[in-house]
Amino acid sequence: MTRPRILTGIATFLLLAAAASSAVAAPRDLVILGWVERVYLVNPGLTLKAKLDSGAETSSLDARIIKKFRQNGKRWVRFALTDPETGEEQVLVRERIRTIGVVQHDGINQVRPTVMLKACIADRLLDIEVSLVDRSEFSYRLLLGRRALRSFALIDTGNTYLRQPQCKMPQVDVESHS
Question: What phi, psi does 166 have (nearest 5°)?
Fold first, then answer.
């Protein structure tokens, strides 16, 4: 073998070794979750069973009486959530983030408003965007999509309920203004 070929071989080996070492991702703080987990929605204070679905981009939440309206130049949504334990209905009002089009499995297109909710998933307190829709025909009232999970979770498709919602809630500083 000639000297230039040997040097080329060594250079190629070093380049491949460098590429392989840089392709290995630095360890991330990923949490392994089951394909179904309990999620605590901070306000309204409900714990729901959620299906974790990497096939869905946006999360969706079972809501009823969904009414969009404008007030003071902002877009809002009023909707009702049902407590799965008591059956009690709570009406919430949130600023509408956007309106999305969703193609159902049966090919039907739906238009849904989205809002932000604070949710505790495992030990993470997150602001997640959820689309509001009647999910009464589904087993799970909350579906968590990729956007809600991508920064911190891996889904173990063979297990459920691997982590309980255990978040440190921020202290709310309530001052009286007279």
Answer: -140, 75
In order along the chain (178 residues), what is the average pLDDT of each group of 10 residues? Answer: 48 39 48 97 94 94 96 96 93 95 80 96 96 93 95 94 90 51
CB atoms within 10 A of CB 75: 14
Domain count for the chain, please give it: 1
Distance of CA 136 to the CA centre of its chain: 20
In a domain, 178, yes or no: no
Query: The domain spanning residue 34 has which CATH number?
Result: 2.40.70.10
* Pairing outcome for strands 59-62 and 124-133: parallel
Query: Would 65 be classed as within a structural domain?
Result: yes
**pTM summary value:** 0.77
Give the structural domain span for 61: 29-156
12 within some domain: no
51/38 Cα distance (integer angstroms): 9
pLDDT at 141: 95
Residue 133 lies inside a defined structural domain of this protein? yes
Cα–Cα distances in angstroms (integers) from residue 56 to residues 9, 37, 80, 143, in the given order: 46, 16, 23, 8
Residue with tokens 């990729």: 146
